[in-house]
Amino acid sequence: MELFYTDHFVLPLPEGHRFPMSKYRLLRERLLASGRFHAGQFLIPPAATDAQLCRAHAPDYVQRVARGALSSSELREIGFPWTPEMVERSRRSSGATLAAARAALAGSGCAVNLAGGTHHAAHDKGSGFCVFNDAAVTARALQAEDGLGQIAVIDCDVHQGDGTAAILEGDASVFTFSIHGEKNFPARKQCSDLDIGLPDDCDDAAYLAALDGALERVFAVRPECVIYLAGADPFAGDRLGRLALSKAGLLERDRRVLTRCRDAGVPVAVTMAGGYADNIEDIVDIHTATVLLAARLFG
Asked: Of 35, 111, 139, 280, which one has the fewest beta carbons inside 10 Å?
């Protein structure tokens, strides 16, 4: 199983910034130390090209990101300062999800972007620590360049995949599913093909019951590839989450999604999406468990 990483494309952030950027490096180091993977399985992805980005995003937006011509209000909505490193990392993160999908399709059945899940980026703007929408970019590239038909996005981040829903709205060839905290960010939700908004403090049992029913609908469309956002932020200890899943519950979530993909013979690209626990080791624990489970199921 191939693991695509971008953590060495460092996005410089001000001291005290609330985004836990170091989690990506820590995750890669933890996986390498696990003994389950050898160094050759960790790969640097190509950057998404302008043509690939512009199938999901407005060309003017892509160009202004590249030139550093975003307004101060646009940068505030994204939550990152503009730097050339921010642009390169954002391109590589989208490229990593596309590379993972292609690796899964090529025969491994599953591959992982050790970042990604930037689902708040919309057609003409970024938002919520998301510059480019890697799921939408990947879906459109797979269809335009690889000849795929039906694709599904399974978004289990605690926040609704509003950007993904908006970009792909009305496109029956990409089924978008988001299971999230109903009262959480974003305040204004978009319409996925299937949305499940959960109440605050939702626990493992209620979450998994809702997920089971949703997966029936997702796989009824017979996707040729799944893009899975395995967010760590439904965790009870997440400061931005508002749900109450345990680490065991999150692992069972992953097991149900990934087993369904494997048993249906559907290749899956896994992305890490969000995670904001006060203790960064909790985030790394959850992401590590996701990747190790994927390796066991598809290895």
From this structure: 35
